[in-house]
Design a protein that fits this description.
With 148 residues, the chain is α+β, with helices and mostly antiparallel strands. It folds into two domains: 5-75, no CATH class; 80-140. It has helices at residues 14-22, 32-41, 70-112, 123-131, 135-140; strands at 27-29, 48-53, 61-69.
């Protein structure tokens, strides 16, 4: 009894298959079965990288894994990592500016003898001192800036 055409198997060099599969694309989604097969053949990421999980959460598998040409994966991953680190630095800096601004505004109200509800009138000056990390300006209001 002959197998149906779609059940027959062939043998191809992995490089030739990947060129046919990915072509000129830098990446392509595929089934979990194909991704596992390619990963088992190219387990050292010589030709391609098989992305099976979210970058931010290794515990979350992709519903459709992604096959990347290795050079494109390396570029993408380095850019992703750089942006993530930059975002973390920017977020930390923004939090410091917000905290320092708040402390400066309260100190300015205290020095001016104004009630705390008038603190908003000093926001621009406090933000300017905080963003520029102006220690002398902060010392005028007896505040030490948090440098992180």
């Amino acid at each position: 009894m002959n197998k149906p055409v779609y059940d027959r198997t062939i043998t191809l060099p992995i490089g030739e298959y990947l060129v046919d599969f990915l072509g000129s694309f830098d990446r392509k989604q595929t089934t979990i079965a194909k991704a596992q097969l390619i990963k088992s053949i190219d387990d050292s990421d010589f030709f391609v990288h098989v992305q099976m999980h979210e970058l931010d959460d290794k515990a979350t598998p992709l519903t459709e894994p992604v096959i990347w040409w290795i050079k494109d994966w390396n570029t993408y991953y380095l850019n992703w990592k750089f942006k993530k680190e930059k975002f973390a630095r920017d977020r930390k800096e923004a939090n410091l500016v917000t905290e320092n601004t708040s402390r400066l505004m309260r100190a300015m109200c205290r020095e001016a003898g104004l009630p705390p509800e008038d603190v908003e009138m000093f926001r621009k000056l406090a933000e300017k001192i905080s963003i520029k990390k102006d220690d002398r300006g902060a010392e005028t209001f007896k505040v030490k800036l948090d440098k992180g």
